[in-house]
Amino acid sequence: MRSLEEPGPRPAATPCGCVKPALETGNLLTEPIGYLESCFSAKNGTPRQPSICSHSRACLRIRKSIFNNPEHSLMGLEQFSHVWILFVFHKNGHLSCKAKVQPPRLNGAKTGVFSTRSPHRPNAIGLTLAKLEKVEGGALYLSGIDMIHGTPVLDIKPYIADYDSPQNLTEPLGDFNLQNNQHKPKTVSQSDGKTDSCYQQQLSRYDEPQPNSCTKGKPKCPEDRTSGENDMKHDDTVKVQQSPASHRERAADLGVESESGQSPSMAEEQSGSHHLEKSFSEEQADRRLRRGEKAVVPQGNSAEMPPEALPCPSRAAGAAHHSAVPAWVREAPVASLEVRFTPHAEMDLGRLSSGIGQASFKYFRSAEEARRAIEAVLSADPRSVYRRKLCQDRLFYFTVDIAHITCWFGDGFAEVLRIKAASEAVQMNDPEESLVSLGSVSSLHHVFKTA
Ligand SMILES: C[S@@+](CC[C@H](N)C(=O)[O-])C[C@H]1O[C@@H](n2cnc3c(N)ncnc32)[C@H](O)[C@@H]1O
Predict the structure, then answer these.
(1) Which residue in 438, 432, 384 sits closest to 415, CA to CA?
(2) For the segment 269-310, what is each residue's pLDDT rounded down to a tens digit?
(3) Does 306 sit in the ligand 1 pocket, CB within 6 Å?
(4) How far apart are CA 260 and CA 98, in angstroms?
(5) Which of 126, 191, 290, 414 is buried most, with the most CB atoms less than 10 Å from its CB?
(6) How far is the CA of 18 from the centre of ligand 1 (A)?
(7) Whose CA is nearest to atom 4 of ligand 1?
(8) Could you count the other beta carbons within 10 Å of the beta carbon of residue 436?
(9) Quick check: helix, strand or coil at residue 157?
(10) What spacing in Å lies between the alpha carbon of 235 and ligand 1's midpoint?
(11) Which residue owns the Cα nearest ligand 1 atom 12?
């Protein structure tokens, strides 16, 4: 353990003049237990939630400055299949956050920051449920992650379904009526006409985290229906403090130089936000119409969120009354996309995975895994609302493992045009540079096909 003499947060003075230790006032000076080595090098293209891409892999080594024998701290963890990772959104780029944000799934409508998974929060702390592949010495190998390379990790906790999953409560507390914030006691048998035994059966089927999958068009859970960093737009700014971090030490732990952010800046993403604002009900109606479903009359014209909450359909029906999500989480306006690869991209992928004349994959175990990861990232539409709506004719770039992917988006699909070794790809320090206008998409498509 760290020495008690190490510098810590200064005691805070209370209004009455007495001094309270920092912990008592909630002022926690954190020290990362390690820095994540991730297959995603930049925010752009990193899945918005861990459930999106099961092949996204990472390694976390516990720092010796935290524990002399890091492996001791991981003892017993190998018996768990999943772990919670608490981390810092260290590449947020700025320290401000807003009370209301526009998550991509709301396609321009606003909701309170605490009803989202926005990276821009008063304390820039992220929470990811990752699959624990193995523990080796002082290192954890993870999959199904949504964090970028270099992410400072604050803590690891085992996922325990009995504690962490509401459907595992044996004694339901009752319904929470979100409309008027009233708690209504309700018994299991009253809930939906199901018998207790049927209910229990359903619970036992769902007491483990659902396996992640990369398939297209799967029903989404709250985890993957939420916001991406690039897409949040804010108001009611709040300034937050940042703990100082030792960059040299961090780079040493990672074995790399500190990297420069490659994803679009918030300023860029925020510009034009007024055009994007649309009420949730309008978006839903649009979407239903797009799908050819019966139109629903929009209820008002506000860009604020409706208060209704619905059970998540991907959970057991009997368990649903323990856990509710708002309709927008379920009825997201963004459909999953079909993902295509041009013959050139197929060739690139083959070349890259063979490792002939260049580096081969570090995180993926095969070309097939790389392909599935790319498909998973793209089918969830990683673009910000801004890009989706106003920059449709732009190329989109992202890097996963050693693959630098260039693609474009059409109506209902994403097409991979090129896959190059990240070392070969032009480094995009200025996100604007990555927004190459296609002009005529088809002509550029032709260029890529014949290149
Ligand atoms: C919407 S957040 C959700 C993270 C976590 N599952 C949660 O709910 O707190 C995931 C996005 O955060 C961004 N991100 C990941 N790691 C980051 C980091 N270290 N700093 C800043 N942004 C990061 C990526 O763009 C990713 O798509």
Answers:
(1) 438
(2) 333 333 444 444 444 545 444 444 443 333 434 556 555 555
(3) no
(4) 25
(5) 414
(6) 39
(7) 126
(8) 16
(9) strand
(10) 20
(11) 229
Average pLDDT over residues 177-184: 48
Pick the residue whose CA is nearest to atom 26 on ligand 1: 48
Quick check: CB of 224 below 6 Å from ligand 1? no
CB–CB of 115/138 below 8 Å? no
Tell which one of 148, 157, 227, 269 to mutate to probe ligand 1, the residue whose CB is within 8 A of the most ligand atoms: 148
48 CB near ligand 1 (under 6 Å): yes
Is residue 119 pLDDT above 50, yes or no?
A: yes
Q: What is the pLDDT of residue 305?
A: 56
Token pair recorded at residue 130: 């990752």
For the Cβ of 89 lying below 6 angstroms from any atom of ligand 1, the answer is yes
Q: Is the CB of 91 within 6 Å of ligand 1?
A: yes
Q: How far apart are CA 364 and CA 370, in angstroms?
A: 6
Distance from the CA of 147 to the center of ligand 1, in angstroms?
Answer: 5
DSSP annotation of 235? B
Confidence band for 83, pLDDT divided at 50, 70 and 90: very high
Sheet holding 125-136, edge to edge: 34-35, 152-158, 82-88, 125-136, 139-143, 57-61, 37-38
In a 13 Å sphere around the CA of 292, the CA atoms on its Cβ side amount to 0
Q: What is the pLDDT of residue 64?
A: 97
For residues 166 and 320, what is the distance between their CA atoms, to the nearest angstrom? 9
Q: Which atom of ligand 1 is nearest to the CA of 48?
A: 27
Query: Are the C-beta atoms of 226 and 328 separated by less than 8 Å?
Result: no
CA separation for the pair 147, 303 (Å, rounded)? 30
Vertex 203, ends 197 and 207: CA angle to 5°? 150
- CB 336, CB 441: distance < 8 Å: no
Buried b (16+ CB within 10 A) or exposed e, 195-209: eeeebeebbeebeeb
**What pLDDT, on a 0 to 100 scale, did the predictor assign at position 139?**
98
Nearest to 66 by CA among 7, 1, 154: 1
